[in-house]
Specification:
10 strands, alpha+beta, six-stranded antiparallel beta sheet, 358 residues, 12 helices, two-stranded antiparallel sheet
Length: 358
């Protein structure tokens, strides 16, 4: 492995002071200091069977962002990912085993957080994600590759879920009848955003598709957002996916796999902080998108929950689990949040209307 990695570094004209970096679960990530700091990653071909599509998307989006940042008088080397080309002028290197490697400049003097510590962090992250969306509002999203097909096509997720129920590969369906009913009772929700895009009622946009707090770098002094990172899942979609999934994670009072449901609720203060930051940086948001913001949190939470439950029915073949009921615990946590969001929907809609002032 060492010889292979040294070969990779030579193709990017980098030194050999290397250490593993970060806590990502998908790609192998290393920090190289040569002098100067660089991130080297091996793209996971099991998750992304076409790494060239991933890189096409990222290169197109980051080059577009660089132009916008320069026009606004910003620092493109700090405010978006900056990729380093190989000595042959290529955006990535393919080794003899067919593995894809890429290098980008390390963004110094910036931090990320895995756990939401306060509403201020969410506000700053929301402003960063909103700015990301707004700068890409005129990017031709239809030209992007769909690197994970039907990733947030909730109608298709329902199809897969019903197949899992019918097959019952692990023989568990009889014990989760209430959870199955919870999902099926809300099947109509799965079509709302997909149909709105297809019918042109909301615009097709560039979406990040992994809008957790730790995918925004924050300034350690000011706390303000510096750069949106981890662009592997950039694809065409709806900003509702990004907003909804951010609050599915950031608006919860507890961990995704908290077994004690009394500890799980949807936090209105965190919702308001994120929503305010997001809308403030996104003047391009349409009235129809605004109207669907609170619903999108419910949708993304429901989608995540039904995926956990489908995997439980299939015998835990997709998500990594640490005990036999792990996926079941996860789905119940998501469904508790869905119920919370449904109960607070009028309040959430009123807050969005107040913030948007339209």
């Amino acid at each position: 492995m060492k010889n292979t990695f040294n070969d990779v570094l030579r193709h990017f004209d980098l030194g050999f002071d290397v250490a593993e970096y970060g806590n990502g679960h998908i790609n192998d990530t290393y920090l190289v200091q040569t002098p100067g700091k660089f991130i080297v990653q091996r793209i996971n071909r099991n998750v992304f069977p076409h790494p060239e599509y991933v890189m096409d998307n990222i290169m197109g989006v980051t080059e577009f962002l660089r132009k916008k940042i320069i026009e606004a008088g910003g620092n493109p080397d700090r405010e978006t990912l900056t990729f380093v080309k190989t000595v042959d002028g290529l955006p990535y290197y393919i080794d003899k085993n067919g593995e894809y490697y890429r290098v980008y400049k390390f963004v110094d003097n910036a931090v990320s957080y895995t756990i939401v510590e306060n509403s201020g962090q969410l506000y700053s992250a929301a402003k960063a994600f909103g700015k990301f969306q707004n700068m890409l509002a005129d990017y031709p999203a239809e030209t992007l590759h769909e690197t994970i097909v039907n990733f947030h096509n909730t109608k298709d997720r329902y199809r897969q879920f019903k197949e899992a129920v019918a097959k019952d590969a692990a023989g568990r369906a009889k014990d989760v009848a209430d959870e199955i009913k919870f999902v099926l009772d809300r099947e109509a929700d799965g079509a709302v955003v997909v149909d709105a895009i297809a019918e042109g009622r909301i615009p097709l946009r560039v979406t990040h598709n992994d809008t957790k707090l730790n995918n925004v770098l924050l300034d350690p002094v000011t706390g303000e957002g510096v750069c949106v990172i981890d662009l592997d899942t950039v694809m065409p979609g709806s900003l509702l996916y990004d907003y909804g999934d951010a609050l599915r994670f950031g608006g919860s009072s507890g961990a995704e796999d908290e077994p004690d449901l009394s500890k799980i609720w949807f936090d209105i203060d965190k919702f308001e902080a994120f929503t305010r930051g997001f809308i403030e940086e996104l003047p391009s948001i349409t009235d129809e998108e605004l109207k669907l913001l609170p619903f999108s949190i419910k949708l993304m939470t429901l989608e995540c929950g039904l995926r956990f439950l489908a995997d439980y029915l299939n015998g835990d073949v997709y998500f990594k689990t640490h005990y036999p009921e792990h996926n079941l615990v996860r789905c119940r946590t998501q469904f508790k949040l869905v119920s919370e969001i449904e109960a607070k929907m009028d309040e959430l809609n009123a807050i969005v209307a107040k913030i948007a002032n339209r």
